[in-house]
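Response to reviewer comment R2.3. The reviewers asked that we include at least one raw input/output pair. We reproduce the pair for XRE family transcriptional regulator here without editing.
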Amino acid sequence: MHIHLLLVEDNLDLATTVIEYLAFSSIVCDHASNGQAGLNLALNQHYDVILLDIMLPRLDGQQLCERLRQQGVQTPILMLTSLDALSDKLASFAAGADDYLVKPFELAELVARIRALSMRRSGQTSRLQVDDLVMELSTRKVSRAGQELHLSPICWALLEHLMRASPEPVPRERLEAKVWGDEPPDSNTLKVHLHRLRKTVDKPFDRPLIHTLAGVGIQVKPYA
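Raw output as returned:
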């Protein structure tokens, strides 16, 4: 079973050890060394599992976990930390973590927990559909009327968020937070990416699915 995960860990020696061990178990690992970088990756990429240290610079692991849940990211999260007090564990679970592993840990146990969480993930929704627009989350493919569409990572993140919310509109501020976290772009950047998204998703077809509601936000809505 191929697994793609995100490791957010500021101890580079530990991160290297974990990544190398996971590679032998056919687990592909992206790495971020601080919470903000981890947030950006988690919001822009699809992962089967996310591993978070708690004591992270810029944004700690519990804050990062909570932020991801607020943004609708349902990827299983495993906390890796030297904090073993019950209060720390409860705080992590309250933030939205699925599992908790105290350092130092056996790498074989880590792999077993990752596989268990990944199997749990496979039971979640892997397909979003609005009208004839289909997003396959497991294979990261998007199609409309049977025609495959090619999206940039940012456009993918925007469309996924809009489709999960459909038919409700999503405020522009929430879309910006979904993609760029605490480092919002200039006022024109979201407009540019929405234009690109419309060009791919709507322009080649006879009816639009992406709509702008003035003063409210952006929505993906089935054609009536």
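The chain has a mean pLDDT of 88. Helices lie at 12-24, 35-44, 61-70, 86-95, 107-122, 153-165, 172-180, 189-201. Further pairs are available on request from the corresponding author.
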